[in-house]
From TrEMBL:
Species in which this protein is naturally found: Lysobacter panacisoli
Protein name from the UniProt record: Heat shock protein 15
Keyword DNA-binding among record annotations: yes
Keywords for this protein: DNA-binding, RNA-binding
Residue ranges of domain RNA-binding S4 in the record: 15-77
Gene3D superfamilies in the cross-refs: RNA-binding S4 domain
This protein's record includes keyword RNA-binding: yes
InterPro entries referenced in this protein's UniProt entry, alphabetically: HSP15, S4_RNA-bd, S4_RNA-bd_sf
One Pfam assignment: S4
Domain of life where this protein originates: Bacteria
Database matches in SUPFAM superfamilies: Alpha-L RNA-binding motif
Recorded family membership: Belongs to the HSP15 family.
Length: 139
């Protein structure tokens, strides 16, 4: 395997998609990256791809991870996982994508405001009330 970032050394012209996603730190393991690709969470140029698809500099990727969606352009190639600073140099996220992610995050935070998880487990009386409320639809 090549052990280099292509922008610096100019050796690699293409890298497997699952390997690049792992090296760019979008997923913790290569198998998670492969699973995301197989389940349609990663698009290359607007089309579903296979894990073995070759990624080249300039490719546009759309990566859905949990509730976040990244739209990035490949700026460098690497098949090894390095420090975060190197991983961030492998891609450039579009400004629209970054703003959309921040707005979605702010919306999720706003939806959670006002909700407080209970501090303790419900006691016997509260459990009976919860059970009774659950039986309302059964009648």
């Amino acid at each position: 395997m090549r052990n280099a970032v292509s922008e610096d050394l100019g050796t690699a012209t293409a890298v497997r998609l699952d390997l690049w996603l792992w090296a760019a730190r979008f997923y913790k393991t290569r198998s998670l990256a492969k699973h995301a690709i197989e389940t349609g969470k990663v698009d290359v140029g607007g089309q579903r791809a296979k894990a073995s698809r070759a990624v080249r500099i300039g490719d546009a990727l759309r990566i859905a991870r949990a509730e976040e969606v990244f739209e990035v352009e490949v700026r460098g190639l690497s098949d090894t996982r390095g420090p975060a600073s190197v991983a961030q140099s492998l891609y450039a996220e579009s400004e629209a994508s970054r703003i959309a992610r921040e707005q979605a995050r702010a919306l999720r935070i706003a939806e959670r405001t006002g909700y407080r998880a209970p501090e303790t487990k419900p006691d016997k009386r509260a459990r009976r009330l919860i059970r009774a409320l659950g039986d309302i639809d059964a009648t």
